[in-house]
Amino acid sequence: MSDKTKITVEALINAPIEKVWNYYTQPEHITKWNFASEDWCCPRAQNDLEVGRKFSWRMEAKDGSFGFDFGGVYDEVEKHKKISYTLGDSRKVEINFISQKDSVLVTETFEAEDSHTLEQQRDGWQAILNNFKKYTESTSKLQKVEFKIEINAPAKIVYNIMLGLDNKISYENWTLEFNPTSTFEGSWGKGDEIKFIGTDSNGKKGGMLSKIVEIIPNKFVSIQHIGIIDGEKIITEGSEVESWTGAFENYSFVETNGKTILKIEMDLSEEFKEYFLSTWPKALVKLKEICER
């Protein structure tokens, strides 16, 4: 780094290094924590985490009164240890990840600019890092559970029926165990948003807003849950979602001799654990029956 004035902020994150690194660098997580206060947001982020490649994220006031793009080029990337980059105004930034027993100390050292006082800059960067700590640690409360079933049908058939690709009714039939009106809106493309919805006894719509993080036809689907649907409202932040925000739901399809082992891996909060532990097995039995007809 140069001889410009440097400021350092730090936070101890109570989570394993793999999770801290992923949440710090993956766009779907960056948009959840990359702002200094609740009246700001990060509506989009792009990150090509390789030396010489670029990153860019948008920061905006929620009332639309102000916003700016923050970006630069990576100078060094050492996985799970260090990131350094040069901002668009030529200032240098260095981030270090120091693994400890059950936590990671994240330190950010950046060159100061001239538009704000050193205190203002330090407070702003520290607030964002604190927000990162809060977001990452809140999802540490999630527990990973696994469900598995053998289905006497090829993976392609199981995959198509499970996702309702040939006919949405097939999806609605096996998910009856979760909700008699269960369905989805959206598409199963990588990066697509999809809504898993149903109605309650009063006819009110509810469900989950999710994102397809990865999809490999007939082999693997990774879904990240990013918000809840409450009637006509979509809620993506606040106390209603903080206990499970960032949770993943992954489907793996492994075919052997015409039979398919379907495995479900799911992040669960304590609030919903009992419900899903009792309901997923029933839903998988229903899916098996449909696929083997």
The amount of helix comes to 25-40%
Number of strands: 15
Structural category? alpha+beta
The unreliable regions are: none
Please state the overall shape, judged from the principal axes of the Cα atoms: elongated
Largest sheet: 8 strands, antiparallel
Strand content: 35-45%
Report the mean per-residue pLDDT as an integer: 91
Q: SSE string, helix = H, strand = E? A: EHHEEEEEEHEHHEEEEEEEH
Q: Write down the Rg.
A: 22 Å
Distance between the termini: 66 Å
* Count of helical regions: 6
Layout of SSEs?
Layout: E1 6-13, H1 17-25, H2 27-33, E2 40-47, E3 54-61, E4 67-78, E5 82-87, E6 92-99, E7 104-111, H3 118-138, E8 143-151, H4 155-163, H5 168-174, E9 183-186, E10 193-199, E11 205-216, E12 220-230, E13 233-235, E14 248-256, E15 259-268, H6 270-291
Antiparallel strand pairs: 1-7, 2-3, 3-4, 4-5, 5-6, 6-7, 8-15, 9-10, 10-11, 11-12, 12-13, 12-14, 14-15
Helix pairs in contact: 1-2, 4-6
Task: Describe the model.
The chain is α+β, with helices and mostly antiparallel strands. It is built from six helices and 15 strands. It has helices at residues 17-25, 27-33, 118-138, 155-163, 168-174, 270-291; strands at 6-13, 40-47, 54-61, 67-78, 82-87, 92-99, 104-111, 143-151, 183-186, 193-199, 205-216, 220-230, 233-235, 248-256, 259-268. Strands 8, 9, 10, 11, 12, 13, 14 and 15 form an eight-stranded antiparallel beta sheet that branches. The relative contact order is 0.13.
